[in-house]
Design a protein that fits this description.
Structural class: alpha/beta
Number of helices: 14
Radius of gyration: 29 Å
Largest sheet: 5 strands, parallel
Number of domains: 3
CATH superfamily of the largest domain: P-loop containing nucleotide triphosphate hydrolases
Number of strands: 9
Order of helices and strands: EHEHHEHEHHEHEEEHEHHHHHH
Length: 336
């Protein structure tokens, strides 16, 4: 037997409900051997629902009421079991690299990465059409639902409920589905005004991955700007900046530990480690990459041009000590 599920039938017009009942009567009369089951979910008074009353008049309705449903513990376990192919990724604050982590996980699987953002005042049919257009990619890929703050949290909750548990939904004119075997990563916005963790859909899903702070082990040392800044910082630490010109063409590819140690030194002072983000680090790297490469190409900053080479060190140190002026985003102030 096949099983079909109808959620909130009260949203259907009276004419549609009436036609539904008439068609079902005809089907039962003309094809009595064609058996199937329908599950109907509603929280409205069934006395005023034409569809359900029509089914009841046919004697084919079994009503399951609140007291017959699963208790909270069993329900939560069932939801967890139904979401084996779902990974919920959260963090205390923004800028901790949730999207990057998800992309890296997908790269390890060597499959197609499909990012699907949901935010703002979205139209449900437009949303469905966008997702439906990606179905062929989802058959061979991984879906990353990037969920931001939305204008209609109730509608978002209903969409996620259907997509995650039943892998399909239809609220407007367009029906959409996700292959049951497709792995889904859900990234929740962690901005101060986000209330996504309060959505009922997520009350019963334990976060698979919680990012508490910047993981320096994932620092992208393949980034050229990071390598330039780290090499320049190494010249400052070793004090070679006072005796010879720093030429980027002579830089070496430093390993992860060396890069991390060199950058963390001037980056952390004055910051709350619990509120340090990749956003702050990217600003730090971008600013000092521009400054350091500028100094390297400026003949007036060369060892030969300065009567006191120590000035090179003093200027570099002064700039590093002022880094908090442009990398302290006061996230801790916002959160506290």
């Amino acid at each position: 037997q096949s099983f079909h599920q109808l959620i909130r039938p009260e949203l259907l017009s009276q004419s549609v409900q009436d036609q539904f009942v008439r068609l079902l009567r005809s089907l039962m009369k003309d094809k009595p051997d064609q058996n199937f089951r329908i599950g109907i979910i509603t929280t409205s008074n069934i006395r005023n629902q034409q569809l359900i009353n029509g089914f009841r008049s046919m004697g084919i309705v079994d009503i399951v009421r609140d007291q017959d449903l699963l208790n909270k513990t069993d329900f939560q376990q069932l939801i967890q079991d139904m979401n084996q192919n779902c990974r919920l990724v959260t963090s205390q604050i923004t800028g901790l690299g949730k999207s990057t982590m998800i992309r890296q996980e997908v790269e390890k699987l060597k499959t197609k990465y499909v990012k699907f953002p949901i935010y703002g005042d979205f139209d449900v049919d437009t949303l469905a059409e966008r997702l439906r257009s990606k179905y062929s990619e989802l058959e061979i890929g991984v879906l990353h639902l990037d969920i931001g703050t939305t204008a209609n949290s109730q509608q978002l909750n209903e969409i996620l409920y259907c997509l995650l548990l039943f892998r399909n939904f239809r609220f407007g004119q367009i029906a959409v589905s996700i292959p049951i075997e497709t792995l889904v990563y859900i990234e929740l916005d962690a901005s101060p005004d986000a209330i996504l963790n309060e959505l009922p859909s997520f009350q019963h899903i334990t976060p698979s991955i919680v990012i508490d702070k910047v993981d320096w082990a994932t620092l992208n040392i393949g980034n050229k700007e990071i390598q330039v800044v780290a090499n320049y910082l190494q010249a400052i630490v070793s004090k070679t900046i006072t005796t010879q010109n720093v030429n980027p063409l002579m830089f070496k590819n430093l390993d992860l530990k060396t890069c991390s140690d060199l950058i963390q030194g001037p980056f952390f002072p004055g910051k709350d480690v619990n509120y340090t983000t990749w956003t702050q680090l990217s600003i730090f790297v971008a600013v000092f990459h521009r400054l350091f490469t500028g100094f390297s190409s400026n003949i007036y900053f060369s060892v030969e041009s300065l009567p006191e080479p120590q000035l090179r060190m003093d200027l570099a140190q002064a700039l590093l000590q002022s880094s908090n002026l442009f990398t302290s985003l006061s996230l801790e102030t916002v959160r506290k």
